[in-house]
Amino acid sequence: MGGDHAPSEIVAGAIRAQEELGVEVILVGDTQAIEASLKEHKSPCQLEIAPAEDVIAMEEEPLVAIKRKPKASINVAMDLVKTKQAQAVVSAGHSGAAMAAALLRLGRLKGIDRPAIGAMFPTLIAGKPVIILDVGANVDCRPKYLEQFAVMGTVYSQYVLGIPEPKVGLLNIGEEDCKGNDLAIRTHQLLQDNPRVAFLGNAEGRDVLSGQFDVIVCDGFVGNILLKFAEAVGEIVLQILREELPQGLHGQLGTAILKPNLKRIKQRIDHAEHGGGLLLGVDGVCIISHGSSQAPSIFNAIRLAKEAIDNQVLERIQSTEIKRAKQLDGINQPSEVKPSEDTTG
Amino acid sequence: MGGDHAPSEIVAGAIRAQEELGVEVILVGDTQAIEASLKEHKSPCQLEIAPAEDVIAMEEEPLVAIKRKPKASINVAMDLVKTKQAQAVVSAGHSGAAMAAALLRLGRLKGIDRPAIGAMFPTLIAGKPVIILDVGANVDCRPKYLEQFAVMGTVYSQYVLGIPEPKVGLLNIGEEDCKGNDLAIRTHQLLQDNPRVAFLGNAEGRDVLSGQFDVIVCDGFVGNILLKFAEAVGEIVLQILREELPQGLHGQLGTAILKPNLKRIKQRIDHAEHGGGLLLGVDGVCIISHGSSQAPSIFNAIRLAKEAIDNQVLERIQSTEIKRAKQLDGINQPSEVKPSEDTTG
């Protein structure tokens, strides 16, 4: 029921996923609306419907709404995963509400203090995306959260994207170890000491899209601003192309000739092609899609969920973090057991 | 002596500025190297040279280097302003060193706790830039620093760019007042209460380039990452255009026809056209240019300096802040006199 184009586009994406990916999609929400939409799209295959009476609106305060509306579609969807009737949730609705529902209904993975939203950014190297996390779940972070983000991103990159030793960067304002704000300087030390992470060093703003990093960690405040900025820049560039290319007689002619090339450029720049963010660190696979998602994005989001399940991402994050916690107990590493390393109170 | 193309490109930009802008440029640095460069560019006009024996290298720790090398070109240049032999400094060298030299030699303006670097970003509305500050001088900020950045940006926008009531935004992760990290939430309150600032509310990442804001404030950590990301995105887009546009027979033909249009797009996207950042809040006009600056950037930087001087930006910032401090003393506003509002310790 969530997102700007629900339920029609959501249903269309789900139908295509069930047809092409060999998954069974359960549509959660208002039965009548969903059935009408299914009829409209005339799918040959049967999609299950899980009825949910309520929806959470975009302007509602997430935690309050999640608690006050147990029968909201996002809660019902999370419960399907909790009770093992489903293996993943995909939502294009209120992202804060999806996070709150995941935390309350599914809980955190052992060893993870804060779940993070990972988003894929395209890079200069075609076909080689970089995962940035967190892009919005945690605005105020401690160094050890960012360290855990690095581990979760590494596991995801290894087992879903098939990169043997993902290179991890810390989003920062300079290359040197001593650069950055308090959070960055202390996180740098933790990442350098973590044997589970191939830490390449600081990633400056200019390095984000260079393709030299597979995983970049940052707090959710910086990450969210960067994500939304990047999305907007894609659109702005396309608008400048539309404004400037056709100018003059030569321009109109050249642009007409280049139409197919412009479409390919749009695909390469456009962030919406990427399906959605993965909520990593909760005990269930959750994909947070963009509110503006249309059928192709929903299809991609369901594929992302399937890949996370097929490659046992959750199990691997959990076993990595538990192993590490045991190691640290053994050697009693001081940088991890300091009582108050929160930078923000 | 600073920057990747010194002294040749710096000298070329300075010659053009002296010829076209009616300013007198003093070149500070190694006399022999500068004279050789002047000879090479064969300028009809005379540029003064202020000899300086030392230079600060990019890898040096700014504060240490500034103190250890009193005769470094950046120190000599700042002293020219301090002793009123010059009205502004333009540097394409080590930006941290330029800031440190400005702080130590010129000092802060009364009423300003922390100077900030303001950078102009182009927006969707052609010819209407937005000033973002801070883009790198202060990595850990208090709410009142961001409030002062808003005042400095407002004064600059009013008196240099001629915008009667500049609209100010707070870089944040949501539109609602309650959104953001600790710093953003507390800054929001201060900006709302400040009669000197036309506060429009939070600016999300997607709003930065929309043109609806004239000034956007953030801490130097976020601002620097955004600035470097934006610079890189411009280059990446141009590279994607170069890769994708000429593909196929139609592509080659169309691209050949569009050559002049592509050049205009490059100018509109390219950040380097903007000359440099203004170090606001120190007692002297200082322009921090990009290390990669060539002659056109240096020319633009000198023009920026001239505009700041002609429009008495420093005097206006100082009088605004002193007036406000007096007002606050009178009404004893609690949000300003709390002893510890630092979020980062």
Written description of the protein model:
The structure is a homodimer of 345-residue chains. Chain A is of the alpha/beta class and 345 residues long. Helices cover 49% and strands 13% of the residues of chain A. In chain A, the strands form two sheets. In chain A, strands 3-10-9-4-5-8-6-7 form an eight-stranded mixed β-sheet, with helices on both faces. Chain A is globular and about 60 Å long. At the A-B interface, helix 7, helix 8 and helix 9 of A face helix 8 and helix 9 of B.
Question: How would you classify the helix and strand content of chain A by structural class?
Answer: alpha/beta
How many angstroms separate the termini of chain A? Answer: 37 Å
Order of helices and strands of chain A: HEHEHHEHEEHEHEEHHEEHHH
Mean pLDDT of chain A: 86
Report the helical percentage of chain A: 40-55%
CATH superfamily of the domain at 1-107 and 282-309 in chain A: Isopropylmalate Dehydrogenase
Radius of gyration of chain A, CA atoms, in whole angstroms: 21 Å
Global outline of chain A: globular
Low-confidence stretches of chain A: 332-345
CATH class wording of the domain at 1-107 and 282-309 in chain A: Alpha Beta
Number of strands of chain A: 10
**Major sheet summary line of chain A:** 8 strands, mixed
- Our estimate of the beta-strand percent of chain A is 5-15%
Biggest interface pair, counts = A-B, 59 and 58 residues
Number of helices, counting only DSSP H or I runs of 4 residues or more of chain A: 12
Note the quaternary state here.
homodimer
By CATH, the topology of the domain at 1-107 and 282-309 in chain A is: Isopropylmalate Dehydrogenase
CATH architecture title of the domain at 1-107 and 282-309 in chain A: 3-Layer(aba) Sandwich
- Kindly report the spatial arrangement of strands forming the biggest sheet of chain A: 3-10-9-4-5-8-6-7
Organism (chains A, B): Coleofasciculus chthonoplastes PCC 7420
InterPro entries (chains A, B): FA_synthesis, Phospholipid_synth_PlsX-like
Pfam families (chains A, B): FA_synthesis (PF02504)
Family (chains A, B): Belongs to the PlsX family.
